[in-house]
Amino acid sequence: MSDENNKHGPHTRLVHTASADPAYNKLVNPPIERASTMLFDKAEDLYAFTPGARYYGRQGTASQYALRKAIADMEGAAAVTLAPSGLAACTLPLLALSRPGGHMLISDSVYGPTRAFCDGVLRDQHGLGIEYFDPRIGADLAAHIRPETCVIFLESPGSLTFEINDLKEISKLAQARQIPTLIDNTWSAGWFLKPLALGIDYSLQAATKYHTGHSDVIMGSIAARTKEGGRVIADYARLTGNMVSPDDAWLVLRGMRTMGVRLERQAQSALDIARWLSAREDVAQVLHPALPEHPDHAIWKRDFNGASGLFGFILNDVPEESVLRFLDSLKLFGLGFSWGGYESLAIHCDPQIKRTARPWQAAGPLIRLSIGLEDKDDLIADLTAGLNTLTTP
Ligand SMILES: Cc1ncc(COP(=O)(O)O)c(C=O)c1O
User: Fold this and answer.
1) 278-329 pLDDT, tens per residue?
2) Range of the domain at 313
3) Helix, strand, coil content of the chain in percent (nearest 5)
4) Is residue 186 within 6 Å of ligand 1 at its C-beta?
5) Which residue among the candidates 209, 225, 262, 368 is catalytic per the annotation?
6) pLDDT (tens digit, 9 = 90+) per residue, 151-166?
7) Are residues 222 and 319 in the same domain?
8) Ligand 1 pocket check: which of 82, 87, 108, 203 to mutate, most ligand atoms within 8 Å of Cβ?
9) Are both 277 and 306 inside the same structural domain?
10) Cis peptide leading into residue 30 (ω within 30°)
11) Whose CA is nearest to atom 10 of ligand 1?
12) What is the CATH number of the domain that holds 98?
């Protein structure tokens, strides 16, 4: 990105970052360069390891470089490492920052497979101490820090239960003790929240969701606040052979070009639908941080500049068969575990909620919606028909 692009607004930056580079040979987009073997002119070059020289396909080629640059620009990062999935974007830095005998503090609302990795690999295989904390703990997290604490892992909001972590308090106490902080920032896509500017060390993305936007690629990214922090992750990825394909990187970058406009529409529809749901008698509570009645609304307002298209709502207490009937009756909402794509999705969440620090308590079953690009009124009509099955089977 040119220095001049730094001065532009977010949409302009997203369009112009890593685009029309002289290396693209007059193309707007980077070429897809598929490579394992890269040839050298002379034998003496083979082990020269000249900075910037191309050696082997695992280093990446034009499209991976361009995607890293675009994500670094959006997150305000010193360096970005790409990972083969959003889950790998969480597990790779956790491994890179783990220490023998170490202790990690993890937000209790963290994505289920990240939690399974912490328990199954870091705790059971590597012997680390894994401690979950109440997502709303704020500055009281200090009491849980031990001399051997080597990571604080956040996810804000939690992608099922939508609590917001207090990034300012947590980054302050972590920095004072030089403990690296990581956040799964997929919900905001790096568009609505800039955690690195708030002092968090790593912003992790499942680029599978809003970046890609078309539900057809799996990818992750790790954006580092400092160059040194970025090097720790890039070295770990290199040593463990983690990389992404040039074709996938190209697709994610293509998706990113329209991410801003997609997100703005999805955000508006989601907020309108959330407001509509809050007025319904059959809904006990809506979990959308931009609604003033959300318990963390003040922190969300302080740190975020918008809300994406993913939110939850709690039905009045109804039996599971009614929840399944409601979901099965939806015609426009697909039933699927992902989110952030162009199409709307719905799931019920209770079977996958696992909590230990603060048990999940709600008046009834929790439904999660990912709002896509359809017309909002059509989505509301679909939900109305679905919710009506709760009372009139
Ligand atoms: C919050 C969150 N983080 C990470 C991931 C993992 O992303 P991926 O499916 O690309 O591994 C997901 C996927 O649903 C997610 O919801």
Assistant:
1) 999 999 999 999 999 999 999 999 999 999 999 999 999 999 999 999 999 9
2) 259-391
3) 40, 15, 45
4) yes
5) 209
6) 999 999 999 999 999 9
7) no
8) 87
9) yes
10) no
11) 86
12) 3.40.640.10
Spot the catalytic one: 68, 108, 111, 262: 111
Contact partners, residue 8, CB within 8 Å, separation at least 6: 16
Q: Is 1 helix (H, G, I), strand (E, B) or coil?
A: coil
Residues 242 and 270 in one domain: no
Number of domains in the chain: 2
Ligand 1 pocket residue status of 316, Cβ below 6 Å: no
Q: Could you tell me if 163 and 93 lie in one domain?
A: yes
- H or E element that contains 89: helix 86-96
| 45 falls within a domain | no
Distance CA 229, CA 376 (A): 42
Question: What gap in Å lies between CA 158 and CA 177, rounded to an integer?
Answer: 25
- What lies within 8 Å, CB to CB, of 201 at 6+ separation is 174, 180, 181, 182, 224, 225, 226, 229
The reply to whether 106 and 245 lie within a common domain is yes
Does the beta carbon of 163 sit less than 6 angstroms from any atom of ligand 1? Answer: no
Q: Does 68 score more than 80 pLDDT?
A: yes
User: Are residues 295 and 151 located together in one domain of the fold?
Assistant: no
Q: Report how far residue 272's alpha carbon sits from residue 369's, in angstroms, rounded to the nearest whole number.
A: 13
Residue 107 CB neighbour total at 10 angstroms: 27
Question: Are residues 234 and 312 located together in one domain of the fold?
Answer: no
In a domain, 3, yes or no: no
| Phi, psi for residue 367 in degrees, rounded to 5 | -110, 140
Confidence of residue 392 (pLDDT cuts 50, 70, 90): low
Look at strands 103-107 and 149-155 and give their pairing. parallel
How many CB atoms within 10 Å of residue 207? 34
* Residue 195 located in a structural domain: yes
Q: Give the ligand 1 atom nearest the CA of 186.
A: 1
Give me the DSSP letters along 194-245.
-GGGGT-SEEEEETTTTTT-SS----EEEEESSHHHHHHHHHHHHHTT----
111 is catalytic: yes
